[in-house]
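Input record, target 12 of the design panel.
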């Protein structure tokens, strides 16, 4: 292949792989359940951090891979979603959906086996057979015994937030957002460049966004106090203030020194955690064991 190939199915090809990456570690005994749940929570927090998951479907993310995903800019977290990370969460949700629909008799494992039998094996036999979205949907519906049109429309072709909290609950796993909603922050990504703290991304509707800070700006000082090159001083410096306070921020934009006034708002960084549900019912424990093992 010497040219770009467009597909809307990277949510399956790459997302399913990403889901099984961590699940295989759990099944092989290399990590325990607590570690596995922390890995899932980390993925959830990463997907939910920007606004991209509300603006771009994972179907579109795959189709736009060559033109957008691999050519990201400073606004990408606000506009794009990763078919790797969100795709893995969709795979997880599908796995739990299939297990619930079949009383834990079938799972995404069965889907993968059937996909291999119908499409993957043909490559080894020298007569490759392609697969469409519709064919993948039919295989999933065959395993689940249910119509998944609404699932596809909402979570694969649409940008509806994945109902992970509700899905986890059926399997004796509790999902909570432990983020401190009253904590002021700049809502930015940074990198250290020599002795400078450089802004790489500005999250939409955050303090920096409203203040006019842009990607590429070098953060110099917050209310006259120097910002460390690694940016670790920012949280401590802002902890002196309350939400709604105004602070002066000095930056270099190219060669121009600029003074910006920022009104502090709460950072929107999610901090989801996953834990085993206390007092889980026997049904929850049985379902959880089927999914995560003993």
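The sequence produced for target 12 reads:
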């Amino acid at each position: 292949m010497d040219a770009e190939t467009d597909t809307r199915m990277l949510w399956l090809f790459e997302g399913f792989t990403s889901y099984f990456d961590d699940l295989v570690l759990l099944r092989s005994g290399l990590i325990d359940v607590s570690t596995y749940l922390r890995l899932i929570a980390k993925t959830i927090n990463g997907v939910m951090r920007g606004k991209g998951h509300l603006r771009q479907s994972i179907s579109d993310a795959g189709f736009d891979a060559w033109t957008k995903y691999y050519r990201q800019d400073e606004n990408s977290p606000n506009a794009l979603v990763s078919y790797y990370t969100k795709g893995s969460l969709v795979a997880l949700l599908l796995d739990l959906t299939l297990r619930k629909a079949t009383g834990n008799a079938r799972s995404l494992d069965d889907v993968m086996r059937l996909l291999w039998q119908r499409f993957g094996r043909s490559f080894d036999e020298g007569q490759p057979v392609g697969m469409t979205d519709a064919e993948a949907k039919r295989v999933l519906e065959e395993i689940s015994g249910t119509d998944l049109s609404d699932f596809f429309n909402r979570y694969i072709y649409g940008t509806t937030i994945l109902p992970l909290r509700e899905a986890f609950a059926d399997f004796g796993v509790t999902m909570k957002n432990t983020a401190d909603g009253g904590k002021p922050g700049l809502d930015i990504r940074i990198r250290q460049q020599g002795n400078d703290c450089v802004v790489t991304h500005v999250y939409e509707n955050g303090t920096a966004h409203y203040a006019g800070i842009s990607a590429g700006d070098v953060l110099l000082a917050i209310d006259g106090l120097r910002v460390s090159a690694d940016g670790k001083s920012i949280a401590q410096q802002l902890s002196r203030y309350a939400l709604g306070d105004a602070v002066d921020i000095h930056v270099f934009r190219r060669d121009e020194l600029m003074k910006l006034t920022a009104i502090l708002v709460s950072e929107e960084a999610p901090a989801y955690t996953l834990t085993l549900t206390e007092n889980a019912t026997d049904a929850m424990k049985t379902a959880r064991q089927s999914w995560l093992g003993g």
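The chain has a mean pLDDT of 89.
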